[in-house]
């Protein structure tokens, strides 16, 4: 087993470090002449133009990838997109018809609820696209179309690289859909693709120095409750950041849409409550900052993640982590890395069994 970990202390850490390569394989195989290419002959541009609504259905981390995917698809294509938890979708008689595309996301391709949701969507006449990591898995076989992610085998129960490549495929899909529907021009699409090309190198840069995140984890390791805040893409990502922490460190945490906090949850913010604030989107930066200030004035200990070059007002955060400047809509694919590392180091420092957290299974093939 030590050999399989290639010198890393845990599979999870190894898999976090494998992300630049996994992202490069997943993205590069879908770019042609600087444009996104789905390699799905039946999903022609005409078929893409005919899609009226999209449903993204999945469980766990894959569902969280869907939350980012929804934000990207709606932003780039204006196609109404919903995200559903598979176990909810399958029992609520969902409104789905033949003009809808149902995107099923699954690392293993074997999750029972997700497979059942896929079958239901087909029965209702929708076309189904599976985004799956395991080749030939049940979900891959049952879907009309498949886009594989190239994460390679993921051993750690807590998903890291599989989430990132799910995001990558969802972004590539969104770009192709936007191009087909004319909501992006070729030039605009090429610019986004150029940014995707830079991603593996930026990830390498982030992974080259993880000491700072480890240090932050050492400062927060004894907390018992924690909040993740963000808006838009940052909110979608915060769900996954929070889940990672809960899964492996057993620290309770909640991801909250920053603007929603005041409608109840802020009553939980007291002196010393840790808040992880994500603020990578320019248009809503000020809004998020003002929500963070609301927590700070109630005594929160804040770590703020934002982009290099933005001005962070004094006294809004105890610690500021700045990420490289990068295309804003793709920021979740960068910011996920420090959030994974933070969860990882918190769990390690607390002596948890990082790769095999209690009560969890890598793949859930029962209801
Ligand atoms: C399990 C795993 C999660 C995973 C979920 C969905 O609960 O512990 O990490 O996100 O199943 O798995 P899938 O293979 O469908 O992505």
UniProtKB/TrEMBL annotation:
Coiled-coil portions: none
Primary residence: cytoplasm
Catalytic activity: D-fructose 6-phosphate + L-glutamine = D-glucosamine 6-phosphate + L-glutamate
TM region positions: 329-348
Keyword DNA damage annotated: no
The UniProt record lists the keyword GTP-binding: no
Residues annotated as domain SIS: 44-183, 216-357
Molecular-function GO terms, alphabetical: carbohydrate derivative binding; glutamine-fructose-6-phosphate transaminase (isomerizing) activity
Any Gene Ontology CC annotation: cytosol
Gene Ontology BP terms: amino sugar biosynthetic process; carbohydrate metabolic process; fructose 6-phosphate metabolic process; protein N-linked glycosylation; UDP-N-acetylglucosamine metabolic process
Active site: 362
Keyword tags: Aminotransferase, Cytoplasm, Glutamine amidotransferase, Membrane, Repeat, Transferase, Transmembrane, Transmembrane helix
Subcellular location: Cytoplasm
EC number: 2.6.1.16
Role description: Catalyzes the first step in hexosamine metabolism, converting fructose-6P into glucosamine-6P using glutamine as a nitrogen source.
Subunit structure: Homodimer.
Stated name of the protein: Glutamine--fructose-6-phosphate aminotransferase [isomerizing]
């Amino acid at each position: 087993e030590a050999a399989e970990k290639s010198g890393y202390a845990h599979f999870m850490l190894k898999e976090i470090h494998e992300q630049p390569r996994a992202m490069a394989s997943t993205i590069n195989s879908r770019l042609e002449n600087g444009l996104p290419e789905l390699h799905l002959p039946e999903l022609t541009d005409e078929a893409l133009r005919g899609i009226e609504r999209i449903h993204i259905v999945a469980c766990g981390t894959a569902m969280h990838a869907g939350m980012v995917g929804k934000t990207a698809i709606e932003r780039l294509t204006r196609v109404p997109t919903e995200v559903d938890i598979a176990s909810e979708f399958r029992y609520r008689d969902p409104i789905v018809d033949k003009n809808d595309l149902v995107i099923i996301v699954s690392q293993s391709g074997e999750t029972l609820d997700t497979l059942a949701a896929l079958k239901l969507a087909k029965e209702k006449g929708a076309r189904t696209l599976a985004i799956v990591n395991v080749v030939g898995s049940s979900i891959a076989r049952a879907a009309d179309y498949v886009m594989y992610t190239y994460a390679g085998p993921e051993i750690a129960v807590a998903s890291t690289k599989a989430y990132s490549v799910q995001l990558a495929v969802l972004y590539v899909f969104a770009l192709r859909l936007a191009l087909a529907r004319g909501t992006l021009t070729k030039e605009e699409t090429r610019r986004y693709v150029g940014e995707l090309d830079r991603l593996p190198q930026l990830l390498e840069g982030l992974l080259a120095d993880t000491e700072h995140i480890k240090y932050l984890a050492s400062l927060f390791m004894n907390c018992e409750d924690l909040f993740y805040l963000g808006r838009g893409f940052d909110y979608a990502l915060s769900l996954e950041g929070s889940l990672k922490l809960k899964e492996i460190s057993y620290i309770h945490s909640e991801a909250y849409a920053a603007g929603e906090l005041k409608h109840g949850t802020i009553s939980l913010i007291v002196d010393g409550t840790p808040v992880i604030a994500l603020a990578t989107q320019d248009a809503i930066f000020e809004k998020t900052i003002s929500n963070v200030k609301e927590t700070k004035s109630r005594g929160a200990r804040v770590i703020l993640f934002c982009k290099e070059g933005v001005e962070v007002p004094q006294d809004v955060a105890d610690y500021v982590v700045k990420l490289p400047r990068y295309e804003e809509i793709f920021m979740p694919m960068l910011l996920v890395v420090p959030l994974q590392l933070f969860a990882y180091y918190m769990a390690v420092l607390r002596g948890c069994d990082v790769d095999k957290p209690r009560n969890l299974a890598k793949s859930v093939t029962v209801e």
